[in-house]
Each structure stands twice: as C-alpha cells, then as structure tokens.
Amino acid sequence: MQKTFIMVKPDGVQRNLIGHVIQRFERKGFQMIAGKLMVVSDELAKEHYKEHEGKSFFGDLMGFITSGPVFAMVWEGTNVIDGARHIIGATNPLEATPGTIRGDFGIVTHRNLVHGSDSEESSKREIGLFFAPEQLVTYQKAV
Ligand code: CMP
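Structure tokens predicted for Nucleoside diphosphate kinase:
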C-alpha cells in the first residue's frame, strides 16, 4: 500500500488546524499510520528541504519550519501521494482551488499550512527522516 509524509506546518498548528487536516484525509478514506507533535531541528529541516538549498527563500523556509511545533504524519492508501496533494492544493494558496486546504485557509506561499510528499521517492525519504520503521502502525480496518 502506498504511503506519504504529511506535515501540518507551524502556521497550521498555530491556527488550530491539526484536527481539520486529519479530518480531510480521514473522510477521503486514507488511513493515518503514524503521527506526532514535534519541533523540527535545524539539522532535520536542512535535510528535509535539501532540494531547496541555495534558493532565495531557503533561509526563510528554514527559519519558519523550525519556529514552532509541527504535526508530522504518515498516511497510507491507494494513490495516497497524489490524493493527498489534491486535498492539500497548489503550493501558492492564492492559486490553490477553493475546497483544498491551502485554497481555503492560505494566502501566501511561504505560509502554506501543510506539506505533502511529491513523489514515491520523496515520500520514502521524508518518512525515513521523521519516523523510525517501528513507529508506523499498519492495521486492517474492521469496516
Ligand atoms: P512545501 O510543500 O513544504 O515544499 C517546499 C516549500 O518551500 C513550499 O511548500 C513553500 O512553503 C516553500 N516555498 C516554495 N516557493 C517559495 C517561495 N517562492 N517563497 C517562499 N517559500 C517558498
């Protein structure tokens, strides 16, 4: 079953949107198999966003993602990587479709509330950065 890494960023946590984000994924039918509230260290932030190193916004991105707690999660389901990105919406919240999380709650790219892996390769990498294998709880749904 496909897995993806989803993170409610510091702005989402500050705005009390953790429960709302979880509900959007749950009602779609995806299954959370790991989740934790944590503060991202400088080292972890640099590793997580290493593809953006050298870009003009990298400093702001580092400062922001380490500025307060995030809620890191792993979600599982059929095509969950693309499915999650549809629920989250476009990177720029002003361009994100209404009905998506960013489309409904965001205004600017650098405070876009939620992160979702963009490929199978990045989901494996990001899950491995934030969670130990034994923290992933796979289980069968009763219904
Ligand atoms: P995310 O999905 O977490 O992946 C990389 C992040 O970089 C992205 O969301 C944005 O929050 C941020 N980002 C991308 N482009 C810009 C930009 N031009 N200015 C500031 N932040 C950006």
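The radius of gyration is 14 Å.
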